[in-house]
Amino acid sequence: MSVDISVVILSYDRVHLLERTLRGCVVQGGDWGGFEIIVVDNHPDQLARGLVERLTVETGVAMTYLADPRRNISIVRNKGIAAAQGRYVAFIDDDEEPQTGWLAALTACLDRTGADAAFGPKLPEFEGGRAPDWDPEGWRYTLDFQMLADEQIHMFGRLRKRGKGLGSGNAAFRVATCLEGSEPFSVAFGDANGEDTQLLFRLAMAGRRFVWCPDAVVREFIETSRARPDYMITRMKRGSQHYAVCRIDTSDNKPLTTAKVALLGLAQTTVHAGLYVVTGEFLDRKHRYDHRIGMAKGLGKLTWRAPIGFIAETSA
Question: SS3 for 115?
């Protein structure tokens, strides 16, 4: 069977969630085309091997299992891409479950538009069944640009909308125009330092076209450890560091861009610090976090030279 799209899933220590991801992937077949599933295990003990072998036998869907113990996400992404046979490569995280028609929607979107990459919504599913009190709508954990099908995502929207940035989770790329060479994801950015952000900026600067695919939905399982506000503050600061370092790295005028990023970070920190006081958020430290998160984003742009690494996700 020819392969239209290759699904690459990276796994480290969330094997307890990976089975949910894989079961959602194996049922994506239909008359729209062919696909393959590639799992790249980044844990030195190869925690995912047994699961992949068991599900291959149980479901009858062949899965390619690869492993690399080096703790660098770009290395394992590139290993999955090198093994892929499809015209397109789709990435989904090991805590996400694809919904019905996910792969068909991504494939059809890229075929229909001729775009270089397509992105879909990520909706949260909280452990315990409901969003945390401090974010009752789960907005901080939702990525949905709410754009029309096939609508272009413009570079100089900075690949962001309402503070939400695109990444490689729930995204599909055209191999020929986006993932060429031995190192499509820069290994220098693979230590939890924004390798997917750097790739997207690089592709956008090269004139690649990105589109929105609202029918390609995944549900991200949010464990209790990640539903805490301190986790979100750290995550937003790290994401802002990624934005800063990638903007500077892909800029033609690095000193000027560095200055602009610093000024933006300073303004963001100052404004949110003032609003933190003026709005009385400091009086309701249990339920209100908007301006603390805003300050974290500003500080991230000022501290990109000291990047935050992988965030511990131990159970609460």
Answer: coil
d(CA 58, CA 122): 28
Pairing of strands 164-165, 160-161: antiparallel
How many Cα atoms sit within 13 Å of 162 on the Cβ side?
10
Q: Residue 164 has what pLDDT? A: 73
Q: Which residue has the tokens 């301190």?
A: 230
Residue 311, Cα to own-chain centre: how many angstroms? 14
What residue type is 299 in one-letter code?
A: L
Decide: 116 and 208 in contact? Cβ < 8 Å: yes
| Claim: this prediction has a pTM higher than 0.85 | yes
Q: CB within 8 A of 305, min separation 6: which ones? A: none
Q: What is the pairing mode between strands 171-174 and 88-91?
A: antiparallel
Provide the Cα torsion 171, 174, 175, 176; round to 10°.
Answer: -160
**Both structure tokens of 22:** 């894989």
Which of helix, strand or coil describes residue 21?
helix
**Which structure tokens are listed for 271?**
């404004």
* Averaged pLDDT, groups of 10, the chain, 316 residues long: 93 93 95 94 96 96 95 95 97 97 98 98 96 96 95 71 79 97 94 88 94 98 95 94 94 96 98 97 92 97 88 55
Pull the structure tokens for residue 23: 């079961």
Q: Report which residue type is found at 122.
A: K
Select from 239, 297, 247 the least CA-distant residue to 271: 297
Q: Which DSSP category does 147 fall into?
A: P
* Residue indicated by tokens 């929207």: 157
* Per-residue burial over 61-88, b = 16 or more CB atoms within 10 Å of its CB, e = otherwise: bebbbbbbeebbbbbbbbbbbeebbbbb
Query: Is the CB of residue 172 less than 8 Å from the CB of residue 117?
Result: yes
CA distance 155 to 148: 17
DSSP per-residue codes, 53-100 = HHHHHHH---EEEEE--SS-HHHHHHHHHHH--SSEEEE--TTEEEPT
